Amino acid sequence: MYIGIDVGGTCTDAVLLSEGKVRSTAKIYNTPNNLLTSLVQALDSVMKGVSAGDIERVVLSTTMITNLIVERKYDPVGLLIMPGPGRKLEHYRNADVHILSGAIDYRGREIIPVNEEEVLQAIKEFDAKGYNKVAVVGKFSPRNNRHELQVAELVKKHKPHWQVEMGHRAGGQLNFPRRVDTTVLTCATKEKYRYFVQSVNEALKKRDIKAQVFIMKADGGTMTLESSEQSPVETIFSGPAASTLGAQALTAAGETSLVVDIGGTTTDLALILSGKPLLSSKGVMVGDKLTQVRTLAVKSVPVGGDSVVEMVGKELIIYSERMGQPYCLGGPFPTPTDALNVMGLTRLGDKDRAWEAMSRLGKWANMSPVEVAKNIINLVVDTIVKEIENMFLEWEQEPAYRIWEVMQKRRVRPQNVVGVGGGAAGFVPQIAIRIGGTPVLPPYASVANAIGAAVARPTLQVTMRADTEQNIFSIEEDGYQGKINRSPFGFEQALDLAKEWLINKASRMNIGDQMQDVEITRREVFNIVRDLKTTGKIYDICVQTPRGIQWHIGAGGKLI
Description:
By secondary structure, the chain is an alpha/beta fold. Among the domains are: about 1-70 and about 195-245, Nucleotidyltransferase, domain 5; about 305-380, no CATH class; about 460-545, no CATH class. It contains 15 helices and 29 strands. The radius of gyration is 25 Å and the shape is globular.
């Protein structure tokens, strides 16, 4: 049996699957500042009559990191960077940043040493501003992390209680600006994410569950909960990825659909083309900055069923923040959920309180409760439709989308609008009409994220770097370094070596039976040139077990 759990900003959803079929579901409103209580209640709800020993795997998804970023509730981070010579610095002008001396070249050789006095001065200035989190990033740190380690050690020596994150650990690719942004977000969110992991582990311990525990990544794959503590940004779009896989599992195989997941805090948008979620070719976009986090082509819109609604003059305003439960459930402010209640589009909580909320909003604008509710619903629909149109402009630029269009032999947009999440039934039919699509509200739509987590294939990745001049290779995830003992050694041999490590690792994790075509997520080759002659090559290769879903729910547990 598998358990899927989605921890959202409003609710914790859970589902128990047995042989690919839904056995039980739960939706628990989160207890403020006590995630453990919500998790235990969710587990107790779905595990009635089930022994803990029967649980084979637990997979989680969460919008925690997404919501922190969307609502800008993450902690400020001081930035220490070593860009080396020739690097334009416009990208960092909006950050609290110190440019340090020190440079490593693309081979990993030191060309400029670190100036320790500059580091100490930066520490003093950050301390004066109240910072206790610092990101340290060098341009070529994936080639040699010596400078990052040196700066980080200096910071910890003088400020041992500060949190310090380094670029070579947060992101292994060479794109310097993206690695900077990835490291900053890792530093900003790690402390709060650690609380999430601790709560999950404690909840499972309380119920004596000893199964393997994974969490959804932004690309629709999974990683072990333990390893996710080192890179919480990999879960930035964990919730949207889970809802995408949930919609995929709840609809027929091979369907093409726009997925609209309306939760309490955010609305997540995604695209499934002929049964496969669209993967972004760029990585996670945070504001106007790209990170190194591989992701499905999703978007989180900061509006949901529990967004605060206020009347300013005679204009209704929907804020991006959630300040508690809807008014109909005892919350402090009117919300779109209260509007749905008044219009008979949901039956949640106290309907009289929902009418009271709409009356309060309409009092100063001389509007009836029904008029207010209609306007709120229209405002939510307008916001989401506008974001859908913007996303289609981005989706249509993706190489995978263009290939799909060619295969269709005509320019066409997906017609199915699959609604999932707690607010789907109230909003998605109107959204579908506005964009000329067909609304689809599948069974178990309200817990689709938990289903998506439960049916997700567990994935593992191996990142290998080989230097043929030095005749060594390293495996980043295992901290292993060894000699290259194959001749000749070119790209194919490097790829085979990375695959061998991945297959062995999958076997140790008891998921070797799910190995099909290995997914290559990164491949880079650099020539080593000395005295105008190529003396070797550097291979950077990252491989991953296949992403996807294991079953279509309602298809008799059919294995994919």
